[in-house]
Design a protein that fits this description.
Number of helices: 10
Mean pLDDT: 94
Strand order of the largest sheet: 7-6-5-4-3-2-1-8-9-10
Shape: globular
Order of helices and strands: HHEHEHEHHEEHEHEHEEEH
Helix content: 25-40%
CATH architecture: Alpha-Beta Barrel
Distance between the termini: 26 Å
Radius of gyration: 19 Å
CATH topology: TIM Barrel
Structural class: alpha/beta
Strand content: 5-15%
Largest sheet: 10 strands, mixed
């Protein structure tokens, strides 16, 4: 399930036209992640963006224009995510509808609390998938999830609030809504050493739970060169583009998407695809979780004895 429902570099093999562009040194936007608002109705202890300004919203016209430009360049999908929570973005219905008209596939990650109130049913049905962060159960006994036509999945971050009562609530939600999968992940606000122990501990525990649960380990490492920003850029509510959504996990991020990790402005994103790719500097990326993806792109750019498969 992990290879289907999570981001992996392996999925590049399904885009041979992109691989050919990589060989020529150019990037192609395949999937866009957008955190359109900093507003959130929870205050999770493990929030990696806890030091953000909590009143920022991305300009909806700028966002629509950028998505349209990237669509012409090859964009296929958009993921609405944090954070904040995307349901608190005032223009969430407009932008989902707009992307649908452009022919883009869409997914959403949310805590689910305001789904029914904030997102129209017709727009929920336009989502290819919906992942609900069940850490809402750390604060509420249940959450009301509207029906969707796409794939419903759950995710839960192990943290200090996790206990048998919360896990029982989670199982009750699984029994009620029958999600395709339940992704369990460790708290990423940890050192590399602690994370290795968490991966080992929870990996063993979750493997015993059986389907629909699966554990996604989070391995911190620094890629030699970073190119993933060209294929899955991350647009944030502050009007800037970041190389990925994991820069906020780095030890020097100070609990926010730090200015030093900015890749470009949203306005300038399109222009980056006119020229050959320049690797994003990784010296400050000690908690990168996209090393596998970057290593794959690096191998395509720098083939050695590639015929000996």
């Amino acid at each position: 399930m992990k290879k289907i429902y999570t981001s992996t570099g392996m999925k590049l093999i399904h885009h041979p036209e992109v691989v050919n562009k990589i060989k020529e040194g150019f990037g192609v936007p395949i999937s866009l992640q957008v955190g359109p608002t900093s507003r959130c109705n929870l205050n999770c202890s493990f929030c990696s963006n806890s030091k953000r300004k909590t009143h920022e919203d991305l300009d909806e016209e700028l966002l629509a224009c950028t998505v349209k430009e990237l669509r012409y360049l090859g964009l296929k999908t958009v993921e609405w995510t944090g954070g904040g929570d995307p349901t608190m973005y005032a223009y969430i219905n407009f932008i989902i509808s707009y992307c649908h008209k452009l022919g883009l596939e869409q997914g959403m990650i949310t805590n689910g609390i305001l789904l029914r109130q904030k997102v129209a049913q017709e727009n929920l049905d336009r989502l290819s998938w919906l992942r609900v962060s069940m850490n809402c159960l750390d604060y509420f006994s249940h959450v009301d999830i509207p029906p969707i036509k796409g794939t419903l999945g759950f995710s839960y971050v192990m943290n200090e609030k996790t206990d048998d009562f919360v896990l029982d609530r989670l199982q009750n939600m699984i029994d009620k809504y029958n999600p395709k999968y339940v992704r369990i992940v460790p708290n990423c606000l940890a050192t590399k050493e602690v994370q290795e122990k968490n991966n080992e501990l929870w990996g063993k525990v979750v493997s015993e739970w059986g389907k629909p649960y699966f554990f996604q380990e989070k391995v911190f490492d620094t890629p030699k060169e970073c190119y993933w920003c060209y294929f899955k850029p991350f647009i944030l509510h502050d009007g800037y583009v970041y190389p990925c959504s994991s820069v906020v996990l780095n030890s020097g991020s100070e609990g926010k998407f730090h200015e030093k990790y900015r890749f470009s402005t949203v306005k300038d994103l399109k222009a980056l695809y006119r020229n050959t790719m320049e690797p994003y500097p990784t010296k400050n990326c000690d908690h990168c979780v996209f090393k596998e993806q970057n290593d794959l792109v690096y191998s395509i750019l720098n083939p050695e004895m590639e015929n000996f498969v």
